[in-house]
Amino acid sequence: MPRRSIWKGSFVDAFLFRIKKNRESLMSRKIWSRRSSISPEFVDCSVLIYNGKTPVRCKITEGKVGHKFGEFAFTRRRRPYRTNRGKGRKGKK
Questions:
Q1: Low-confidence ranges of the chain (pLDDT < 50)
Q2: What dihedral do alpha carbons 67, 71, 73, 75 form, nearest 10°?
Q3: pLDDT digits over 41-60, tens only?
Q4: What is the extent of the structural domain holding 41?
């Protein structure tokens, strides 16, 4: 996948760009823009990132700067693979 042009800079949603200035409104704020990049102004803030169903709490650290918000709110559930399902399994002989 080709990268974004350097002269354009990283993408930040207009809504996040406005609230980026005052940090108090950013604390525990719901973010629907998963495609926005995390900028250094968001460090040490706790935000709620929407995963398609419910908002997921995420603490922004220095290591997350430059990544997208959506990378830290998984949209799919992790289910462990189980070999035996117990009684009543269909097709068992």
A1: none
A2: 160
A3: 888 888 899 999 999 999 99
A4: 26-75
| Pairwise CA distance, residues 21 & 37, whole Å | 16
Which CATH number is 48's domain given? 3.30.860.10
SS3 15: helix
* This prediction's pTM: 0.71
Residue 16 domain-assigned (yes or no): no
Amino acid letter, 48: L
Residue 48 φ then ψ, to 5°: -110, 115
Give a yes or no: residue 63 inside a domain.
Answer: yes
The HSE-up count of residue 5 (CA atoms within 13 Å, CB side) is 2
